[in-house]
Amino acid sequence: MWCTTRRANCPAWQREITPESLFKWVVEEAVPARPDAVFIAGNGLRAVGVIDALEQEFGLPVLTANQTLLWRTLHCAGVLNPQITGYGRLFGVVPA
What we know:
Elements: H1 19-30, E1 38-40, H2 48-58, E2 62-64, H3 65-76
Parallel strand pairs: 1-2
Helix pairs in contact: 1-2
């Protein structure tokens, strides 16, 4: 597996990063690199609104810090099929 990261050329304050600017950054910086998936780190980023849109637009799995935390927490609590839609394909995956 090969991994690369790209630093966002975004404002220093996370609250200034809008879902729209985050979507635009992924389209301009991440997608051209032809990744297998996109991971948006940072719990303060408002990425929830772009997960599903990016996955549908580009066919890539999009993972965020908060999304993966919630997914794993639900599974640790025994919720194996959470019926959550609109927040990415991750919620349809059951961990091994």
